[in-house]
Amino acid sequence: MPGQNAGCAACREAAETLEFTMAFQPVVDVEVGRIEAHEALVRGPEDQGAATVLAQLTPDNLYAFDQACRLKAIELAARLGMETRLNINFPPNAVYQPRACIQVTLGAARRHGFPLDRLTFEFTENERVQDPAHTSAIIEEYRRHGFQVALDDFGTGYSGLARLEALRPDILKLDRRLIQDCDENPVRQAIIRSLVTLGREIGVKLVAEGVERRGEMETLRGLGLRFMQGFHFARPVFEGLARWPLPG
After folding, report:
1. CB neighbours of 70 closer than 8 A, spacing ≥ 6?
2. What is the CA radius of gyration of the chain?
3. Which end of the chain, N or C, is surrounded by fewer C-beta atoms within 10 Å?
4. Pick the residue with more confidence: 144 or 158?
5. Which pLDDT score, from 0 to 100, does residue 3 have?
6. Cβ neighbours around 148 below 10 Å, total
C-alpha cells in the first residue's frame, strides 16, 4: 500500500492527469430558509458531467483520485468563502488505512483554514462494501476528527436497514427514486413518513435528494422532512456557490 508521501504525489498526479474540478449544489434547510451545506460534485474542466471524469477511473488510480477530490473540494470551498458544511463523496473501498489516508485531508483543511467540524463525507449505499468492519473503522476515525458521515442514495442499495444499523451514520440521504413524484404516490409517502420517524428515534438527520418540483417539496415538508437538495432549489454551480433564496 502507498505511504503518505507516495499518496500525496499520487493525488497531485491524479489531479493533473484526470483534469477535473468541482461544482457545488446546496442542501437547503426549508424550515429556516437557509443553506445548510454544499455537496462537492465532480466535473470536467469545462463543466463536463461527472461521467466524463469517472469513466477514466481504474482500480489503480481510484485511491489517488479520491485523495485529489478531497484536496480540490476543500481548496475550492475555501477560495469561495464557503461558510456552510462541505459534503465530499468518497468510495470506502479506496481507503486502505483510515489513519494514514486521512492525513492529506487534514493537511488541506489546515492549509486553507477550513474547519474540520464543517466537513461531511458521503458514501453511497449503491457501492458494495467489501469489508463492513473496515468501513466502520473509517467512520470511527473520521468522527475522531470531528467529521460527520452520510449514507447516500439510501433506499436503493445493497443492504438497506442492515447497513444503517451496522454503520450508524450521522446523515441519511434519501435516494431521488424514492422522492420523485412522492406527492402523487401514497406508498412512497408512507415509506418516507416511516423513515422520518426512524431517523428521529435513532438520532439520524434525513436529507431528501432529487427534489425537482414544488409539489414534492411541500409533500416532504408535510411529512416532517426539513433538509432537501435538488433542482427545485438550485442546480450544481460550476466552481461557485448558489444562494438561497435564489434571486428573483
Report:
1. 88, 90, 104, 105, 108
2. 18
3. C
4. 144
5. 44
6. 20
